[in-house]
Amino acid sequence: MFLHDPPRAGGESMSITGTMPLDAQGVHHGFFKLPYSRDDSAWGSVMIPVTVIANGDGPTALLTGANHGDEYEGPVALQELAVTLRAEEITGRVIILPMMNLPAFAEGSRCSPIDGANMNRSFPGRADGTVTQKICHYIAAELVPLADIVLDFHSGGRTLDFLPFAAAHILDDKAQEAACIAAMQAFNAPYSVRMLEIDAAGMFDTEVENQGKTFVTTELGGAGTATARSVGIARKGIRNLLIHAGILAGDVQKEPTIQLDMPDDRCFVFSQHAGLIDYLVDLGDMVKAGQAIARIWPADRTGVPAITYHALRDGILTARHVPGLVKIGDFVALVAEVISETPASK
Question: Which residue did the predictor score with more confidence, 332 or 263?
């Protein structure tokens, strides 16, 4: 089939169309085209790049990046995959969306500059909604149902920095949770996290999981950039996941990974003050409950003591705020529990 305006129940139709087929064999590059009338282009469109690679019957993997537009490991690794993966190397189908939130990606922003929406709080979207809601609705209604496994790349963007980890969520369906954890372990990031989201409403993760799919997400760094190491983790993880899914031949490349857990909200520390943040520990450092982990100094005067923030549990500092100034309500620190270390396979 081609991506087109398929009829919907009650006469509803999708406003997003495509320039290439979803189910044809071989390699196809194109766009999802969303009409967007605006001051500088009355009949303009948002053109979201997509690659579909298919060969024979087999599982479908949906690989996405730039859900938030200021996160770069996914787009870099997926752009490379789109030009290097050959149809004859796979069995099944790979759908690649390196910049799923293209308006935000083009601006280097977390949220869309068009409607101000955070894509990862906008699922399942609306066919008659804003630009972000329409993109979310199309992905949720048309792409996720095709997928057996979904990998959504994230990192910290401009305001967070993470230890590089892959994550699977705590789910009510324990069989589905086990499948997601197995896929996360196959991704084989330096850290592997069983994650509790602080607010899962509207997330792409939640939509995919509610559809019963195997889902893996990541946090591979941050601070508004990507590094050779973080992109290398993404590149290896994609290959491992495709092998795990039975789409790509070969052996999963395993290196040691530290297993982490985020069992409750005591993992998170948030600021109740505004000012200049002074971290007393670094990413990867082990901390104890009650240990001082950061101080916030006034940013507008001298002679006033800093306010000290403490860890709420034992664990490893897994994420922190960037840049150096914080506001009231900003995230300060994530302390995850260390479960075990999985050695590399022989």
Answer: 332
Residue 311 belongs to domain with CATH number? 2.40.50.100
Q: Is the pTM of this model over 0.90?
A: yes
3-state secondary structure the chain: CECCCCECHHHCECCCEECCECCCCEEEEEEEEEECCECCECCCEEEEEEEEEEECCCCEEEEECCCCCCCCHHHHHHHHHHHHCCHHHECEEEEEECCCCHHHHHHCCCCCCCCCCCHHHCCCCCCCCCHHHHHHHHHHHHHHHHCCEEEECCCCCCCEEECCEEEEECCCCHHHHHHHHHHHHHHCCCEEEEECCCCCCCCHHHHHHHCCCEEEEEECCECCCCCHHHHHHHHHHHHHHHHHCCCECCCCCCCCEEEEECCCHHHEEECCCCEEEEECCCCCCEECCCCEEEEEECCCCCCCCCEEEECCCCEEEEEEECCCEECCCCEEEEEEEEEEEECCCC
- pLDDT by residue (tens digit) across 125-142? 999 999 999 999 999 999
The domain boundary residue, chosen from 261, 283, 306: 261
The residue among 225, 241, 261 that closes a domain is: 261
CATH of the domain at 136: 3.40.630.10
